[in-house]
Design goal:
This protein is an alpha/beta fold and about 250 residues long. It has helices at about 35-45, 55-60, 65-75, 90-100, 105-110, 115-120, 150-155, 180-190, 205-210, 225-230, 235-250; strands spanning about 5-15, 15-20, 25-30, 50-55, 80-85, 100-105, 125-135, 135-140, 145-150, 165-170, 195-200, 220-225. The chain has one domain (about 5-250): TIM Barrel. Strand 8 (about 135-140) and strand 9 form a beta hairpin.
């Protein structure tokens, strides 16, 4: 098992750091009016990555919170994974040229799979596919539109494309603190060789311990959002659990 990564999420809406409930834009709770300060706090807490989403961009189909993303990038020295409103090659190139490490393609993955394959070929290690599922079916356009494509079928389309990872989000659990749907994410991870990141519903330290269960060994990590913001998940405790596992793995050789 590779080292499990815990990705703290910064979701941007109208220039602020928010969390949504099941993807509903009118169910947003503002947790920080200064996203760059939030990013610094996550870095100081010891996280190794940031997961950033331009929520307005996801609905608009183009970047909207560019200034805030750039401020986050300038505020920290962590690698950044960015999604929301990235629908064409020019936008992908613009973010990668800025220094963003990985861009997440969600709607584009369903509607323009050729773009994903081209980008993954031209920018190896930099393209992530976001698969957001409601009852197993893929949702797009900021989760406002549902499709008949299953998450498993969409993942299989990119098996040989060279994408860096798949982020699997269970929309029903997002922002409601009911626990990660690790069974569904693990099923996805067993279907393809692409690393899978679980997202949606991480509720507390119990979920972090669950991630280390051998059944979920193929997962690259998980995204934590509301639980970090409302204090249900202590960063130091969570990162210590993962650090202890890494130390144990090294000791085994």
């Amino acid at each position: 098992m590779e080292a499990m990564i815990l990705f703290p999420a910064i979701d941007l809406k109208d220039g602020q750091c928010v969390r949504l409930r099941q993807g509903e834009m009118d169910q947003a709770t503002v947790f920080n009016t200064d996203p760059a300060a939030q990013a610094r706090a996550f870095e100081e807490a010891g996280f190794e990555w940031l997961h950033v989403v331009d929520l307005n961009g996801a609905f608009a189909g183009r970047p909207v919170n560019e200034a805030e993303v750039k401020a986050i990038f300038e505020a920290v020295h962590l690698p950044i994974q960015l999604g929301g409103g990235i629908r064409d090659l020019d936008t992908i190139i613009a973010w990668l040229d800025l220094g963003i490490d990985r861009v997440v393609l969600g709607t584009a993955a369903l509607r323009d799979p050729a773009l994903v394959r081209e980008a993954a070929r031209d920018f190896p290690g930099c393209i992530v596919v976001g698969i957001d599922a409601r009852d197993g079916k893929v949702a797009i356009e900021g989760w406002a539109e549902s499709s008949e494509t299953t998450a498993l079928d969409l993942a299989r389309r990119f098996e040989a494309a060279g994408v860096a990872a798949i982020i699997h989000t269970d929309i029903a659990r997002d922002g409601v603190l009911e626990g990660l749907n690790l069974a569904a994410s693990a099923e996805l991870a067993s279907t393809v060789t692409i690393p899978v990141i679980a997202s949606g519903g991480l509720a507390g330290i119990e979920d972090v311990h669950r991630l280390l269960d051998p059944r979920y060994a193929r997962l690259e990590g998980a995204i934590a959002g509301r639980a970090l913001y409302d204090g249900r998940l202590d960063p130091a405790e969570a990162l210590a659990v993962l650090k202890d596992r890494r130390a144990a793995q090294k000791a085994k050789g």
